[in-house]
Amino acid sequence: MFDKILEAQQKAGEVKQRLDAITVTGTAEGGKVSVSANGNKKIISISIDEEIVQEADKEQLEDLLLIAVNKALEQAENVNQAEMAAMTQQMFGGLGGLGGMFGK
Questions:
Q1: Does position 45 have pLDDT exceeding 80, yes or no?
Q2: Which of 21, 78, 83, 84 has the smallest count of CB within 10 Å of its CB?
Q3: Can you list the domains of the chain with their CATH numbers?
């Protein structure tokens, strides 16, 4: 039992490392505002085109930044969930056929 716990912790660490290496990007205004995050849902960069800085007022720029951040975090969440599901499937292998009990 203790071995299974250690294995799960090790696998979780491996997944975290993989997620750190995955980058997703959310954009707004045709890419003029761009936010990148890793698979662990950490913002790693923000890019704002100089043109949009000159043209937009503070409120518009804040709105565009929110859109890009939310898109990046949504993509990061999707990647995160997919990696966690794959790890769970790998570790438990469908629970020995129990998965079919619930209408799979």
A1: yes
A2: 21
A3: 2-90 (3.30.1310.10)
